[in-house]
Write the structure tokens for this entry.
Amino acid sequence: MFNKFFLKETPFFDFFNHQAAIALDSAKLFLVFASGNGSIDDIAEKIKVLESQGDTITHHCIEELHKAFITPFEREDIYRLISSIDDIIDEIDATCDCLVVYKISKPIFFVKELAQALTDATVQISEAIKFLRNMKNSEAIRLHCQTIQKIEGDADIILRNAIGHLFEEEVDTRMLIKWKEIYEHLETAIDCCDDVANVIEGVVLEYA
């Protein structure tokens, strides 16, 4: 009885939901730039604000984790989940930093494809985490996680094509290095989405 009451009152699910919403908002903002709309300087500034909010949520979640006597699932999984979502936001922010520092004002084709994959993955994360509060929704959660894993696999193919195209077509070595770094940040962001899915699946397997 006490455990059920605690799970309804715990703040951890609110932290997860807020963090997932920030990750999704960051991905959507980056997709605006990747689609050829908006100034990278303006978008990077907005994402920087979101990144700071994400850091604050992570800090509060970890602080609460230290204080909590009972947690809805393993402390390590709570830490990994909030940190992995935060990592997504950090990598989107790092991508924008590269674009601003390198003074790249327009995206190239594969950036949009990767940005779309990232946005799709963060949508799935947001939906999965909404269900996480109630393990009766375990099948729906698993489906969202499987979708994220498929998106990550498809993004790997996009990245390979992007890198291949870059080495074939880009004659300016400096631009090649810059775009390669940008691609790698986007890949890492999508990999972090997969990390989130893996943590969620592990929790579901343990507690559903």
Summary: The CA atoms of residues 31 and 155 lie 15 Å apart.
